[in-house]
Every structure is written in C-alpha cells, then in structure tokens.
Amino acid sequence: MAPRQGIAIRLAWPLKTIIQRFAFLALIAVSIALLFLGKANIGVIEGLRTTTTDIMAPVLSAISQPVDAINATVAKVQNLTNIVEENARLREENARLLKWQAVGRALSQENENYRQLLNALSDPLVLPITARVVGDSGGSFVRTLLLNAGSDDGIRVGQAAVGPLGLVGRIVEVGNSSSRVLLLTDLNSRIPAVLEKSRHKGILVGNNSASPTLEFLPNNAVVVPGDRIVTSGDGGMLPAGRPIGIVSSVSGRRIRVQTFTDWSLLEYVSVLRYDLPGMSSPDENPGDMGESRLDAK
Amino acid sequence: MTPTIAYQINRILRGSVPFVATLLLALLSVVPTGISGFDLVTPSLVSISVFYWSIHRPYLMSAPLVFLVGVFSDFLTGAPLGLSSLMLLLVHGVALSQRRVFIGKSFMLTWWGYLLVAFVIAILSWIIASLYSLTLIPLMPVMAQFILSLLVFPLLAWGFGVLQNNLLRHT
C-alpha cells in the first residue's frame, strides 16, 4: 500500500497547486468581468446587491447605535462648557426667528391668496419618510449612504433625500427594507438646480469632492459668491425650491457650490415621496399613502 | 479513528475566525462615524486583514474567500462591483507568494511589505475607478486613505496576533 499512497500524494500535490493557481486566476478574471458587467446594470446583480443590503441593514443599524451614543455623549460634554453663551445666543436667535415666522406666515397667506386669484395649481403634497443612516461609502470612489428603509416603507428609486439643512441626494437603489442614496457630491449625481434670486437654471454636477459645481447655466447668467441655490423641480423627479447650498466661488465658468448639508452630522434623512399628477405611473406611485407602513402606526 | 462531531465543529468554527473577522471589518468600515470627512478616508481594514491572514494562515483565507469578502464589501459600499475583489485578490496573491519573506521575521518587515502592497493597490484602484467613471477622481483622499490604513496596520496586526495565538494555535 505504501508505495501507491506515495504516488498518489506525489500526483496530488502538483494537482492541488495547479487547481489553486487556476482558481486564483479564474477569480481575478471573474472580478474583471464583474467590473464590466456592473456597467450594464444587470438585474440579477442588482438583486443580489439589494438583498445583501437588506440583510445587513439591521446589523449595521445595531453597530451604529453605540457609535451614535458615543458621539452624542461627546457632543453633550462639549456643549456643557459653553452652555450659558449658547443659551444667550439661542434666545437672541429665537427672538429673530419669531419675527421671521410672522413674516413667513403673512407671505404664505398672501401667496395663497394670489394663487386663488389666478386659479394657479399648487404643488402636490410632499410626504417625508424619515430613515436612519446606517452606512456610508467607506471609501473615496463613491459617495453614497445606506438607509434602513426600503420599498416596504414607500421608498422608490428617484426620490429626493433631504437632511435638516437641505438636499442630500437621490435614491438610486431600493431593497425591501434598505435603500441607497447617491449624494449630490458623487460624480454620477446630476441635480436640476436654479439660482434662487435670478431664476437662472443649471445642473448641479457632483465630482466626489465636498463642493459640487453648477454647470449649464445660460451665458447671460450673473453669478456671485453667496447666491443661494435651490432645486428647480425640472424633470418632475424632485420637488422644487428645496435648499441645496450657496455659491462659494466663481472662477471663469467654474461655479463651486458649498452645500448646506453637514455631511458628517447626517444621522437621519427624510426621503420625499413626491408625485406629479400624470407624470408618474400609478403602479409605482411614490405619493400613494396607502402603501406606507407609516400609516399603520 | 474519526474525530468526534464536537471536535469537527470546534475546528470549523476556529478555522472560520479569519474570514468572519474580515467580514466584520468590512461592516465596520461603512458604519457612519460622525467625524467630518472620515467616510472618504476610512482606512482599508479589509485589505489589512486579507494581507495578514494570507501570510499567517493562507489556508483559512483562500482565494475564493477573499473574492467573497470583496464582493460583500462592494455590495455594502456601493463601489463598482468587482473592484474590491480584484484588489483584495492581488493583495492575497502578493502576500501568498512572498510569505517566506515575511514569516518569522520582524514586524517592521511585514509593515514595510504592507506599505508597498497598499500603495500599489491605492494607485491601481484609483486608476481603475477613474477609468470606470471616465473622469479623474480626486487622488488626495485615496492617498489619505492609504496613509491611515498604514497607521492602523500595527494595531490590527496586534489584534490578529492575539486571535491567532488564542484560537488558531493548532490549526
């Protein structure tokens, strides 16, 4: 028996190495093939991706909770040191905002009256779905967020995601209980935007850096740093008039935008279920309240 | 004599430690930290893990497992699918072929080895990602990520060493 076993081992050893080498090269080839296939948006791959995020979203949610708790504690301690000044500042701000609130109410009522006089259609109701941010992109090649709400909660591809201060991005991928937001700083992001004052329209183009650029403005548009930029609502995907940011610098045709959103402090974002009557199909009507779990509560 | 089932299970559980640890690190790298700009430069914990285990326990971190870790990580981060797999397989391949250089030598040598591999990977992934999106992606964050990974390496390697000495001594 002994010599035969020896032969078997002598034969098996190189065979094993060859198989391992082959597996290694084959897997490299598969990875490269995946890179090409990924460009083609194949349904199966998208399905696998959303299934993975669906399964992992609760896990990530659990992991991120202690991190959030630590951050909250640190913030609390930091706030304790200047609590008196902060209080004085907030009182002042509160007084100022109360004045603005009165102005806002009056203007909103005035607007409503004019609309009625003109018989103008008002924008459809926008319902927010607020979801927790459970993941970020963890790298420098894409700028995305992972949310712990998905199609079961009424989220659909294309809806806008807004933070407390302004627009964050758009939904690009939806699983049953998780979804992915493409941030407006990602280089694949294109958001129709408008200069708030001059009403010149352009496209906000992300470039993976913190400051996206405003492009495709008409030639006669005058832009100065400090101009506010809001969504234009062109294309019917995003609601109009949502704040995005301010122009931070203008050099030649290159207009850089500083977003209102503080990217490091995004714990929750609201996804806007926006529906223009007649523009979205009833099957995937994102504005339909009936499909949301929120109503059951 | 066949080993008992309990022994087998024990062995499989211990053997899966490197793989599971790597998956956990992949999850950890996408958890939002609340630190401004950190998500851009999150150290590549997964590549450190693959590098370490490919040197110290190559049969527990085989090429198919490395591939799976890469796909998992791409699914989580939303990066171009296949990019991480390709990069991690390269890390694995280099570490495996140069094992003899690193094993039993000083830690500094391993660290130096990781520096070289991670640098090449950073540049290569930057080139591929730029080609993929047909624009020049800012290089600075990629380099910052590389340097942070390098700084985290000793800490993680120490942790893996502890795991290895306690759970994987006889595997």
Task: Give the tags.
heterodimer; A: about 300 residues; alpha+beta; B: about 170 residues; globular
Written account of the structure:
- The complex is a heterodimer of chains A (297) and B (171).
- Chain A has 297 residues and is of the alpha+beta class.
- Helix content of chain A is 38%, strand content 23%.
- In chain A, strands 1-2-5-4-3-12 form a 6-stranded antiparallel β-barrel. A 6-stranded antiparallel β-barrel of chain A has the order 6-7-8-11-10-9.
- In chain A, strand 7 and strand 8 form a beta hairpin.
- The termini of chain A are far apart.
- Residues 285-297 of chain A have low confidence and may be disordered.
- The radius of gyration of chain B is 17 Å and the shape is globular.
- Chain B has one domain (14-30, 42-167).
- In chain B, helix 5 runs antiparallel to helix 7.
- In chain B, 73% of the residues lie in helices and 0% in strands.
- Classes of the chains: A alpha+beta (297), B mainly alpha (171).
- Chains A and B meet through helix 1, helix 2, strand 1 and strand 2 of A and helix 4, helix 5, helix 7 and helix 8 of B.
Mean pLDDT of chain B: 88
The percent of residues in helical segments of chain A reads 25-40%
Oligomer: heterodimer
Largest sheet of chain A: 6 strands, antiparallel, barrel
- What is the total number of structural domains of chain B? 1
Number of helices of chain A: 3
- Based on CA atoms alone, the radius of gyration of chain A comes out at 26 Å
Low-confidence stretches of chain B: none
Structural class of chain B: mainly alpha
Write down the overall mean pLDDT of chain A: 82
Strand order of the largest sheet of chain A: 1-2-5-4-3-12
Number of helices of chain B: 8
Residue runs with pLDDT of under 50 for 5 or more positions of chain A: 285-297
| Measured distance between first and last alpha carbons of chain B | 19 Å
SSE-based structural type of chain A: alpha+beta
Q: Could you say which overall geometry of chain B the principal axes of the C-alpha atoms support? A: globular
Rounded to the nearest angstrom, the radius of gyration of chain B is 17 Å
Number of strands of chain B: 0
Helical fraction of chain B equals over 70%
